[in-house]
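Quick one - inputs below.
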Amino acid sequence: MREEPVYERGYEASGIPMLRVYPDAYHEFIAELKKRGFFFVSLSAIHWRRLFEIVVLLYSVEEGPVLVSTIIPENEEIDSIVDIFPGAYMYEAEAYELLGVRFRGNPRLRRHFTPEELGHPLRKEYELQETPIGGWRW
Amino acid sequence: MTEAKWVKETPPTLFLEDADTGLYLSMGPQHPAMHGPWGFRVRLEGEVITWAEPVTGFIHRGVEKLMENRNPQQGLILAERVCFMDNINWQLSYVFAVENLLGLRDAVPRRADWLRAIAAELNRIASHFLFLATYGHDLGLMLAPVIAFRERDIAINLLDKLTGHRITYNYLRIGGVARDATPSWINDAKRSMKELRKRLERYYDLYIYSEVFNERTRGVGKTSTEELLEWGITGPNLRATGLPLDLRASSPYLEAYERTGVEPATEKDGDSYARVLVRLKEIEESIRIVEELLETLPPGPVLGVEQPVISLRRGYSYSIVEGSRGWFQFFIVSTGGFTRGGSKPYRVKINNPCIQLIYFIAEKLRGMTLSEAVAFINSMDMCIGGTER
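Output:
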């Protein structure tokens, strides 16, 4: 692990601390926080055209919430955290399905909500479409 | 319970395979014990489930994508359609995220703060009664849906008179609420709360002291605090294992909750029985909160910001609200900028605490009998509409 995995500390608008970590230290940093008593709440992904940002919300009864953010290039993979927190199974699967983020080590990375033909609808280059895609397959 | 033989995880097949002696059964999306269009494909060995895989994908509406193409005022209407059962709390979460981003939290008048809390608690009561109705029906308490829907109607009727709608209220605004409560409504609400408290006693007879209910729920689907925290499951399901974690109590997001104080309802067993009992206690606590808030409702305006609000500042905003099913979270990322029709958020992420339940339930189902599975799945109070969004 890096000497200092966090390269930026700040707060988002509601006052929750937000830590930006290097992508190679992301998995270990989450594991460290788990040892400190934090538990997993949710995982969000943002598509910044060429980059993906992964934001994980952790909560500790003593210390309150913290957001851990990491940024990866669009075509690279990131370590899955399902071995630390199994709650991330669906969040990562959803980020894969709707945005195309690939997580290394998540066995349930498949489509759950939308048909295959839809692609990744939450990507920024994806335009809203008038005609329905897919439909029922009996 | 017989010893279940563990099978290798294979993709579900429709028909019996030659070498496979188990029976594959589709439990949902059309199944009397599954609430909402989702389900499980389970493999049965006798009556014991040896393998389960969730079946989803029937109700994805793309709320997040729609919000990214609308201004914050239009997003209000979408926010409450995430889950129809507890939509005031969903809208509250959205409103907080936008208000924090715009720095408008101090602009909300005190009366609006109180009315938000009253509406949220009434909606929580309605949501928990809906749970009691459907869950009782699953367990064979055939009277439960009839009387629980009647009690739910008391809360719904109050919200109807306050907001003008029965299901999707669209009551909150950025910077306040849409309508003020009249003195006659306040009297009406006080009377209804007294009536509801009286009727709630009957539910202990119907559920907690009922032989059928005890037989079917005691020790079914036992969960521990550590397990639920690893899965990130919050709300009444977590409190049923003994951890008194309630955001209304630990970090009150409305001034009204600070004023009344909230006593988190807890149980220690963590089984289906405890989960029902926690919700019954929560209804009682919500009634107390509403009664206290009605007594101390401050005078003044209910809207502190000029409508409509169609601009957004640059930044990240994360809001967490203690809903009836756990923590309702809105994550709004905005790059600022103003185009025709107002500024749109760059990314809206709706994090529903029910989404973890899909695989949590699937993993817990192994080793259960089919009748236990029904009593377990629905005791988690899953909302699939809010999960797929």
